């Protein structure tokens, strides 16, 4: 996890913005920073904030190598198949840094070929000074963030977070410009003019979610069992976790005691031992005293023998960090903010009290495996599969955004095995009727794949889906109730009466939502388009995104399903 930043065609870029805008994303890379100005490209500069994970000595960026001195790379990413690429194409690396592989791939076949063959997560920028061209690319699920600012005059700027571009956006007032997330699974190429401004030459969707990856797979397709789907799911998820062990820093894992984080933790603990990692895996759970997540996470940690940390919080803790959470996330989405409070607090604890830096998490499982409770209300299996695809396409705006920003705020790197390209390709290729909830049990296929193993206790493997707000607090008073109590006095009835006129896009339906939007507009004025819609469950009639309001929500039961 790092922070990349660049600007082309803005005369003030070499002074004001290299000192102010660039520093706005310094939390993404506390170990070192560098900013460079290429004399051959006027009115431009590129910058990098580094969190050293692999090759802590020689992996600094902007990166240039002797083989291709005209190419400059900045990349926030982890390329898990870097060694495989060296063997496959005969690359000779000059560093031990995984992202160097992107330079060699680009030099061999261009930006599209480069992005297609990278097995990992990345947001990258390559500058070819010979051709005076700029290239951008982002991983298929948008696990690593990237924002792009363009003006009608050809000014182009990119940053890992929107906050790194807001000062420039203000400088461009009076001109046509747009700040937006760079789309996942896309590459772009720009010609750089003499004054540093740019012209778009190419914009290409190089990967569609669910497609077969172009990269040589870690698990050869000939090794798949011809009939045992459960065995293939186990093999591919193990591979997804194993490849993400690539790190020179200590690895830990978020653990809620739910299915997704428990599976990731269990596989991580087992594979870390197989790979010879000598330290115990640290696990982290959060909640109010004796909340369900705290209780179940403790059971999993004891079963797996992890070095477990419990983080307890109070309503006052929520009050103190709520505004910081909104600023960190760069969103006003109700569900995302609610779910981020606990993750923000736990990330703060990890940074302050441990030496774990690479943090595994279970994000992506609900979207991929149809794990949200409302999937039980899908009219048919095909509709469920289409909704799963929609959620995965937009995950970078919601759950993916949440896990990246909350951990990055405290200089931590997130790793999400459920969004592995080979694993998602296989899982999404299975018949929709097999992937949908069975007998009222969501993620039935994933649970069943591990049912006859000793990886987890059955009470964990078949634990009911918990609404996040209930998991970290209690069924008597959910987290969203705590937040609503906090913001009630912060929004007046008169403000709510004028909501539609003031905020016609994503109009806040409640005082809670209005508070989020008001705080967002203070930090990111006129940028509401960054969030296209409120995350809400489908096929049910509810006014609140919490699963608690779905009629068949079963978390009130103390018994697990299965």
Provide a descriptive summary of the structure in words.
- This protein is an alpha+beta fold and 562 residues long.
- The chain has two domains: 3-205, Glutamine Phosphoribosylpyrophosphate, subunit 1, domain 1 (4-Layer Sandwich), CATH 3.60.20.10; 221-549, HUPs (Rossmann fold).
- The chain has 21 helices and 17 strands.
- The strands form three sheets. A six-stranded antiparallel beta sheet has the order 2-3-1-9-8-10, with no helix packed on it. Strands 4-5-6-7-11-12 form a six-stranded antiparallel beta sheet, with helices on one face.
- Strand 6 and strand 7 (133-138) form a beta hairpin.
- 53% of the residues are buried.
| Count of domain modules | 2
Structural class: alpha+beta
Q: What share of the residues does DSSP label as strand, in percent?
A: 15-25%
Q: What is the CA–CA distance across the termini? A: 38 Å
Helix content: 25-40%
Strands ordered across the widest β-sheet: 2-3-1-9-8-10
CATH architecture of the largest domain: 3-Layer(aba) Sandwich
> How many strands?
17
Largest sheet: 6 strands, antiparallel
What general form does the structure show?
A: globular
Secondary structure elements and pairings:
Elements: E1 3-8, H1 16-19, E2 32-36, E3 44-50, E4 63-65, E5 68-79, H2 82-89, H3 100-117, E6 120-128, E7 133-138, E8 147-151, E9 156-159, H4 166-171, E10 177-181, E11 186-192, E12 198-205, H5 229-243, E13 250-254, H6 259-274, E14 282-287, H7 292-304, E15 307-312, H8 315-329, H9 334-353, E16 356-360, H10 365-368, H11 381-393, H12 399-408, E17 413-415, H13 421-428, H14 432-435, H15 444-449, H16 458-461, H17 468-471, H18 479-487, H19 493-497, H20 499-502, H21 511-523
């Amino acid at each position: 996890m790092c922070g990349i930043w660049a600007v082309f065609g803005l005369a003030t870029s070499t002074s004001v913005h290299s000192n102010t805008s660039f520093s706005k994303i310094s939390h993404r890379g506390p170990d070192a920073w560098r900013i460079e100005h290429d004399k051959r490209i006027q009115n431009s500069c590129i910058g990098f904030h580094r969190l050293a994970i692999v090759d802590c000595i020689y992996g600094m960026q902007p990166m240039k190598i002797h083989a291709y001195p005209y190419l400059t790379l900045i990349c926030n990413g982890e390329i898990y198949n870097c060694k495989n690429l060296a063997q496959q194409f005969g690359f000779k690396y000059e560093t031990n840094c995984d992202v160097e592989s992107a330079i060699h791939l680009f030099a061999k076949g261009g930006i599209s070929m480069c992005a297609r063959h990278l097995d990992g997560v990345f947001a990258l920028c390559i500058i070819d000074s010979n051709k005076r061209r700029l290239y951008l690319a982002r991983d298929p699920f948008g696990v690593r963030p990237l924002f792009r600012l363009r003006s009608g005059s050809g000014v182009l700027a990119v940053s890992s977070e929107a906050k790194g571009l807001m000062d420039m956006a203000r400088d461009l007032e009076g001109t046509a410009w747009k700040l937006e997330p760079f789309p996942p699974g896309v590459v772009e190429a720009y010609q750089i003019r003499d004054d540093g401004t740019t012209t778009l030459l190419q914009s290409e969707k190089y990967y569609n979610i669910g497609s077969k990856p172009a990269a040589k797979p870690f698990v050869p397709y000939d090794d798949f069992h011809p009939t045992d789907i459960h065995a293939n799911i186990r093999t591919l998820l193990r591979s997804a976790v194993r490849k993400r062990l690539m790190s020179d820093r200590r690895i830990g894992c978020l653990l809620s005691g739910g299915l997704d984080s428990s599976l990731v933790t269990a596989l991580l603990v087992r594979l870390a031992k197989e790979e010879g990692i000598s330290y115990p895996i640290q696990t982290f759970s959060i909640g109010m005293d004796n909340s369900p997540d705290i209780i179940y996470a403790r059971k999993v940690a004891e079963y797996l023998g992890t070095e477990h940390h419990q983080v307890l919080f109070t309503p006052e803790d929520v009050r103190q960090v709520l505004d910081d959470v909104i600023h960190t996330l760069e969103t006003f989405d109700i569900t995302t903010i609610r779910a981020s409070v606990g993750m923000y607090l736990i990330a703060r604890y990890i940074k302050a009290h441990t030496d774990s830096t690479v943090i595994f998490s279970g994000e992506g499982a609900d979207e991929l495996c149809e794990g949200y409770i409302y999937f039980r209300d899908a009219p048919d299996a095909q509709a469920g599969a289409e909704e799963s695809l929609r959620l995965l396409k937009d995950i970078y705006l919601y759950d993916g955004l949440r896990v990246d920003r909350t951990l990055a705020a405290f200089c931590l790197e997130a790793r999400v095995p459920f969004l592995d390209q080979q694993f998602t390709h296989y899982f999404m290729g299975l018949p929709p009727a097999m992937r949908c909830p069975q007998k009222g049990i969501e993620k039935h296929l994933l649970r069943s794949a591990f049912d006859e193993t000793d990886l987890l206790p059955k009470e964990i493997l078949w634990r009911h889906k918990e609404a996040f707000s209930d998991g970290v607090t209690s069924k008597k008073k959910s987290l969203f109730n705590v937040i609503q109590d906090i913001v009630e006095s912060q929004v007046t009835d008169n403000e709510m009466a004028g909501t539609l006129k003031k905020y016609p896009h994503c109009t806040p339906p409640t005082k809670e939502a209005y508070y989020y939007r008001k705080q967002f507009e203070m930090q990111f004025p006129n940028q509401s388009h960054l969030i296209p819609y409120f995350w809400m469950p489908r096929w049910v009639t509810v006014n609140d995104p919490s699963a608690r309001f779905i009629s068949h929500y079963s978390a009130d039961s103390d018994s697990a399903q299965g």
